[in-house]
Write a structure and sequence with these properties.
Length: about 260
């Protein structure tokens, strides 16, 4: 006989089970979510680590586009270190570092194409002037940085004005002023320029392919000067009094002679 006096009763038979409260259920569900979430994160971390180091995603093909001043063969050669590395290990910074020594390269865009291909799109600095160097031509950016040295025939494809005087090149401030001015010009005008020169940073002079000249002055108010010059070049020529010189050094009061 049990202590209660009822035959067959055991202490376990007297335990009362209370229904789970809303708060307890919520805490239990939260624990389940936390455990499930932690397990998923751990699984993803392991999967990411496997992919990051896996030779299954090793790069075998590097495709380069957008190059012109920089030859495509040279770009592919510089990017050889990424071959055989897993795709997840090669990103924007890796490619930028490998091409960092090439002055023509402005930015790059990197696209992974699993399982084995890496696509690199190169965006180059725009050349605005060229300087004669024997039979070659050195192409410069608007900041006065040499971008590439090309044969004369190849450089002619760019239709760039040349810096007329070697003295301009030797004086960094004057040369920077010239390239800055040329960089301000819209392409439609720059391709009509034959040459550019200056004695000082305040006396930049441009010569058009038809022989007319433009007194530009210093690089200040460049966009405004370019706008005024563009308007002046559209004015029909008077055969009786042809214009040989455009003075936009003071853009609000341009003068033609």
């Amino acid at each position: 006989m049990s202590e209660t006096g009822q035959p067959g009763d055991t202490p376990a038979d007297n335990v009362l089970e209370f229904p789970e409260t809303h708060g307890q259920a919520r805490r239990r569900h939260r624990r389940v979510w936390w455990i499930s979430g932690a397990g998923l994160v751990a699984l993803l971390a392991v999967l990411s680590a496997v992919l990051y180091f896996s030779p299954v995603l090793a790069i075998t093909t590097v495709t380069v586009s957008g190059t012109d001043l920089l030859s495509r063969d040279r770009a592919v050669e510089l990017l050889q270190p990424v071959r055989d590395r897993p795709l997840p290990q090669v990103g924007q910074r890796t490619v930028e570092e490998l091409l960092a020594e090439e002055p023509a390269v402005d930015t790059v865009r990197v696209h992974a194409e699993p399982p084995h291909d890496l696509s690199v799109e190169v965006v180059e600095h725009e050349p605005v002037a060229m300087v004669h160097d024997g039979a070659d031509r050195i192409l410069y950016s608007a900041t006065g940085t040499p971008l590439a040295t090309l044969p004369r025939d190849r450089a002619a494809d760019y239709h760039l004005p040349s810096v007329a005087s070697a003295e301009d090149v030797r004086d960094p401030e004057v040369f920077d002023a010239i390239t800055s001015v040329l960089g301000t010009l819209p392409e439609s005008i720059r391709t009509r320029m034959e040459s550019a020169s200056a004695e000082t940073v305040d006396s930049v002079t441009l010569t058009l392919t038809d022989g007319r000249t433009v007194l530009w002055g210093n690089p200040e108010q460049g966009p405004r000067k370019a706008q005024v010059l563009q308007a002046l070049l559209k004015v029909p020529e008077d055969e009786q009094a042809p214009i040989r010189e455009f003075d936009v050094s003071t853009p609000d009061r341009p003068v033609t002679r």
